Amino acid sequence: MSSVKRRKVDGDVPSGLVKKSKKTAPAVESDSESAASPEPEPAAAESEAPAEETPLKTFKDLGIIDSLCDACTSLGYKNPTPIQAESIPLALQGRDLIGLAETGSGKTAAFALPILQALLDKPQPFFGLILAPTRELAYQISQQFEALGSLISVRCAVIVGGMDMVPQAIALGKKPHIVVATPGRLLDHLENTKGFSLRSLKYLVMDEADRLLDLDFGPILDKILKVLPRERRTYLFSATISSKVESLQRASLRDPLRVSISTNKYQTVSTLLQSYIFIPHPHKDTYLVYLLNEFAGQSAIIFTRTVNETQRLAILLRTLGFGAIPLHGQLSQSSRLGALNKFRAGSREILVATDVAARGLDIPSVDVVLNYDLPPDSKTYIHRVGRTARAGKSGHAISIVTQYDVEIWLRIEAALGKKQKEYDAVKDEVMVFKARVEEAQRHARNEMKNLHEDRGKKGATLKGRRPKDAKGGKRGRDEMDREEG
Ligand code: AMP
Fold first, then answer.
1. Which residue in 36, 156, 340, 400 has the most C-beta neighbors within 10 A?
2. Per the similarity annotation, which family is this (predicted)?
3. Do residues 153 and 283 both lie within one domain?
4. For 130-155, how does the pLDDT look when each residue is reduced to its tens digit (9 = 90+)?
5. Is the CB of residue 113 below 6 angstroms from any atom belonging to ligand 1?
6. 296 and 442 in a common domain
């Protein structure tokens, strides 16, 4: 894999990932009784420390060797983010870690750098295994490993569902240093690919552990853990800590330290401007088009609740001349990667997505998140709006709230702990779009009908179902890393 993304970051450090002061220091606490237990400090990922306080650390200060510091510089990482500043020194001391951090915090490099440094010290095949909940996230992690490890020629293999097993078996046969995998497909290879074992593994990372467990990967993780050597280092990263995450942690980590960059699990960064727009349900499309016009030229993700709606909106917007591309869990793996690549490259500026895209995707510079349909819960809201205002940039998140959504919106506001601003739309300006939107709606309806008929003929249905045996059997296992739209 050579398409390494070299993301330029404005300013020095990603979002809210500001200079460390006593007040902003991330909390580090021992998670076991036996370990030394420093007082956890209050954490606030986005507080702003006065500039004259403690100077920013460098990667070298954290103990990172020169060749990896150079790799960081070439990727535009000037200073470590707080999760990196806290976890890297502990990881280099050989501790197991629990990192409470979200995508966008720089957590991938927080675990990749110590692993690469240890690998350089004692190179060997199958040195590290990274488990991730979704296929896209697995690819992104591998790209970061390859980018950071390019100067030391690190070899990675990505093992995810939806792809042919044979090339993956061949990739494993080449004995990569790092395997990045979704759990279902990895277990398939552990059970069926001759000569493949992880008996010599030194590092295990479980990334987005809460999501892994939400997707019912728990039993598969248990099976994988049984065939890994106990003598290893383990890092568990999660945006939230639930009782399930805690029991996974007990089963897999030894004497871990907990590193957290935020105490409030519903915290959003200060550069994110959030608002809502309260409108009658039948006018949703017209308001959406109005909002897209307001933010013309900016990149946007529109979140919808269903696959069908994602497709319909993409057609509707394209009919109106917007560069919109759908992304959902029923696209083939190559179409999903293709859609994401087009969006990343900027040839399409609007991604219409189900929550499959809400997690883990490292999409640079999304200016606006539009919740066309409200998310089902506050946790998903946080993940959705986390696609903007990253790496210190500003961003907008606007939620369309109709008469049917009031209750859920109030719940989200309560979780955020503050009333959100109402977006100031000028009704007359909105209604200018009405006639054209209605025409595009008719076109989209026809296109959708054709799409349904075509799929009907081919024997597939648009409303794809999870395979019956989604929990344990091989077919189900293979589909588990592909979220439902
Ligand atoms: P992650 O939380 O690992 O998904 O990282 C979010 C984004 O921040 C990625 O695009 C990284 O390339 C970028 N990033 C990671 N560490 C740093 C850093 N120290 N300085 C600037 N950008 C970073």
1. 400
2. Belongs to the DEAD box helicase family. DDX47/RRP3 subfamily.
3. no
4. 999 988 899 999 999 999 998 888 99
5. no
6. yes
Average pLDDT value over all residues in the chain? 81
CA–CA distance, 209 with 98 (Å, rounded to integer)? 10
Within a domain: 211: yes
Measuring from atom 1 of ligand 1, which residue has the nearest CA? 106
Q: Say if ligand 1 is within 6 A of residue 82 CB.
A: no
Residues sharing a CB contact under 8 Å with residue 239, sequence separation 6 or more, in sequence order: 100, 101, 102, 103, 208, 210, 211, 265, 382, 383
Q: Are residues 279 and 255 in the same domain?
A: no
- C-alpha distances (whole Å) from 126 to each of 154, 198, 205, 470 are 11, 6, 13, 29
Same domain, 183 and 203: yes
User: Is residue 332 in a domain?
Assistant: yes
pTM: 0.61
Write out the residue range of the structural domain in which residue 392 sits: 272-454
pLDDT bin (cut points 50, 70, 90) of residue 261 is confident
Ligand 1 pocket mutation pick from 77, 86, 383 by most atoms within 8 angstroms of CB: 77
Cα-to-centroid distance, 113 and ligand 1 (Å): 12
> Residue of the nearest CA to atom 18 in ligand 1?
77
- SS3 state at 272: strand
Phi, psi of 130 (to 5 degrees): -115, 125
Q: Which residue has the tokens 């040839």?
A: 347
293 shares its domain with 427: yes
Q: 276 and 221, same structural domain?
A: no
In tens, the pLDDT along 102-119 reads 777 889 999 999 999 999
Q: Is 80 in the pocket of ligand 1 (CB under 6 A)?
A: yes
State residue 441's pLDDT score.
97
Render the burial of 146-157: b for 16+ CB within 10 Å, e for the rest.
bbbbeebebbbb
